[in-house]
């Protein structure tokens, strides 16, 4: 094998170096902790909705029940077991996300501030289908919705605890207005989170290019702001 056979190696090394330098000058649209907690939440919420609907069907609050095909657990005891098992998964996952959001400054950089004027402007633009979608940034409506769904997550956990152990957590149950009122609070928070999920999925359908970065992370030039939401 002649020396000319290796003549292409310096060129390959140069191209590889250029590729590495190019990657080093970019950042992920969604850092891996955001992606991981997002998908754990997605799977967990499906399980929570389906097992929760089965529990609801055992003692409906209103004159309707959920189709059995959309429930999880098979029977009341099984549904409760699913609900509590996944609840702890989501609580731990939520704590991981909150800790990451605080210490990485993800919350401060990407989800704050929320200004009423910007929210009104973005809502008006969205209703006219003119809402700007800047790659790697959250708009004001997205920032507001994420904080609201986090608040609903806290409320659904607290109301769930009040329902689970109304004697041990009697102060919490009293704060909710009693066991029956806690059920309504729990159902309302679930409905709000469900509405958020529907809007979230609708936006993915309308702008499908936002899905892949939540799987792969995506890349953006490092100087183009902060990691956010495509």
UniProtKB/TrEMBL annotation:
Gene3D superfamilies: Transmembrane di-heme cytochromes, Chain C (1.20.950.20). The chain crosses the membrane at residues 39-59, 79-103, 144-164, 184-207. It is found in: Cell membrane. GO terms for biological process: respiratory electron transport chain. The keyword Transmembrane applies. It holds the Pfam family Ni_hydr_CYTB. It is a multi-pass membrane protein. Keywords: Cell membrane, Membrane, Transmembrane, Transmembrane helix. One of its GO terms (molecular function) is electron transfer activity. GO terms for cellular component: plasma membrane. Residues 30-217 form the Cytochrome b561 bacterial/Ni-hydrogenase domain. PANTHER family: CYTOCHROME YDHU-RELATED (PTHR30485:SF1), NI/FE-HYDROGENASE 1 B-TYPE CYTOCHROME SUBUNIT (PTHR30485). This is Thiosulfate reductase cytochrome B subunit. It comes from Pseudomonas cichorii.
